[in-house]
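> call design_seq(struct)
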């Protein structure tokens, strides 16, 4: 058993724990970049973040001629890479942790 404290309200929700074997951060980056900014999130366990990212990509596709969708996908790719790095190092991340906001 690990000594990881339970999640506290206001810090990103439920924790996502590292999987064995850990997911490759490069794979998560590529999947989030190519598949509407969401598939990588599903693979690392941040399902709600993946759903929100997918909705944002779809909503922004037509009004911004794809530019908004591209920005969401790039941001999701970078964020997914950073989350996967934390998980690969053995650290849990919260469902709604973004970029380097690991508390």
């Amino acid at each position: 058993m690990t000594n990881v404290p339970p999640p506290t309200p206001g810090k990103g929700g439920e924790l996502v724990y590292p999987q064995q074997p850990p997911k490759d951060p490069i794979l998560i980056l590529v999947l989030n970049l190519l598949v509407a900014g969401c598939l990588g999130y599903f693979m690392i366990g941040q399902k709600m973040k993946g759903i929100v990212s997918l909705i944002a990509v779809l909503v922004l596709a037509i009004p911004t001629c794809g530019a908004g969708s591209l920005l969401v996908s790039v941001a999701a790719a970078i964020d997914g890479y950073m989350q996967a790095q934390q998980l690969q190092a053995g650290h849990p991340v919260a469902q709604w942790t973004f970029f380097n906001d690991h508390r």
